[in-house]
């Protein structure tokens, strides 16, 4: 028996496609954000609040992933911005090839900001690079403050934590300081915003984060 | 259950490698899974066995090396296994360290019997 060393990532095919997407996004100056959360944390509501804040002249598009149904795309399409549903038919995450296919009929030169809503799942999406500039993780206060410790991978890989449904804080035993502390024990430099998509509290702070991200991305693009 | 897709990617890699060893058989593939990879080793082994069963790849075993989160102390340079960002250094007891590894999802090795290496590799 001979032992032969092997090199390479297990998901090298996904990584190859993600790298080619990332290069295309850079070429056309598209900022791509990948939203991950468990089901029902409010990713779609957050995107609704986000889209309604934009002027119609903004060049924004959305890809939204679900195992079944076009419900989220229908909700988000009311904003008037281009929205496409990716139904994975059972797969619990989006992968780079699904993004590549979904973008086939869209011209990247017409898009400045692409928001990707992943399938609701805190585990699987963390393994699949979609060519995004950043992953953002949404956690709602009805879920328990130890989620960052139970699912460290996605919290480790996300740039921003969006704590959603803060309007429900008086009714649930959720210690928001502990949740933030847990999240920073997995990822020290995690940025955090607290929002309620119902009362719109904190939405201004979230939009400010997004605007800052878009500006730094534009600066980086013009410098290169 | 993304472990099924990931196990399938490991098998794709094994099938590709098979061409390098004409007349040989690959008995084992080793992979590294980090604590932060978001992949469950037990689920991974289960999926791997299910996928290999009844194929030309049998017998083929999977060996998983689980890699904990590792940090390096900024004060004394010691590498240590860290439970979290703020874990204290196992050597000097200081906090303040940087991330070394623990998010691996990598191929590590193959074990091959009677494999004449294909030319050119």
The neighbouring-strand order within the major sheet of chain A is 4-3-5-2-6-7-8
Q: Quaternary arrangement of the chains shown?
A: heterodimer
Number of helices of chain A: 8
Largest interface: A-B, 34 and 32 residues
Number of strands of chain B: 6
Q: What gyration radius of chain B follows from the Cα positions, in whole Å?
A: 18 Å
User: How many β-strands of chain A, per DSSP?
Assistant: 8
Question: How far is the first residue's CA from the last residue's CA of chain B?
Answer: 36 Å
The fraction of residues in strands of chain B falls at 25-35%
Are there runs of chain B of 5+ residues with pLDDT below 50, and where? none
Please state roughly what percent of the residues of chain A sit in beta strands, choosing from under 5%, 5-15%, 15-25%, 25-35%, 35-45% or over 45%. Answer: 15-25%
Helical fraction of chain B equals 10-25%
- Structural class of the helix and strand makeup of chain B? alpha+beta
**Residue-averaged pLDDT of chain A, rounded?**
96
Shape of chain B: elongated
Helix content estimate of chain A:
25-40%
Rg of chain A, Å, rounded: 18 Å
Distance between the termini of chain A: 51 Å
Largest sheet of chain B: 3 strands, mixed
């Amino acid at each position: 028996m001979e032992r032969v060393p092997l090199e390479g990532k297990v998901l090298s095919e996904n990584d190859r496609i993600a790298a080619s997407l990332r290069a295309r996004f850079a070429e056309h100056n598209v900022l791509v954000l990948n939203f991950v959360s468990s089901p029902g944390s409010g990713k779609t509501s957050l995107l609704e609040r986000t889209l309604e804040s934009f002027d119609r002249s903004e060049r924004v598009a959305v890809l939204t992933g679900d195992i079944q149904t076009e419900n989220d795309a229908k909700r988000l399409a009311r904003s008037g911005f281009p929205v496409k549903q990716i139904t994975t038919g059972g797969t619990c995450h989006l992968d780079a090839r699904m993004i590549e296919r979904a973008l086939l009929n869209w011209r990247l030169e017409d898009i400045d900001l692409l928001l990707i809503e992943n399938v609701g799942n805190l585990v699987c999406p963390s393994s699949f690079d979609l060519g995004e500039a950043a992953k953002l993780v949404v956690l709602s206060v009805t879920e328990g403050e130890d989620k960052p410790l139970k699912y460290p991978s996605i919290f480790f890989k996300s740039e921003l934590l969006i704590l959603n449904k803060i309007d429900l804080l008086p009714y649930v035993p959720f210690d928001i300081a502990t949740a933030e502390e847990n999240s920073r024990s997995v990822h020290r430099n995690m940025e955090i915003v607290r929002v309620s998509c119902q009362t719109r509290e904190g939405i201004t702070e979230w939009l400010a984060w997004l605007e800052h991200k878009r500006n730094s991305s534009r600066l980086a693009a013009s410098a290169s | 259950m993304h472990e099924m897709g990931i196990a399938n990617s490991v098998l794709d890699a094994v099938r590709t490698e098979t061409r390098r060893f004409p007349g040989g058989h690959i008995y084992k593939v080793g992979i590294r899974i980090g604590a932060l990879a978001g992949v469950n080793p037990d689920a991974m082994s289960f999926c791997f066995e299910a996928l290999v069963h009844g194929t030309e790849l049998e017998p083929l075993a999977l060996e998983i090396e689980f890699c904990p989160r590792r940090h390096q102390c900024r004060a004394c340079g010691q590498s240590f296994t860290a439970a979290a960002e703020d874990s204290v250094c196992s050597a000097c007891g200081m906090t303040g360290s940087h991330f070394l590894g623990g998010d691996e999802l990598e191929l590590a090795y193959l074990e091959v019997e009677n494999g004449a290496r294909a030319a050119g590799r």
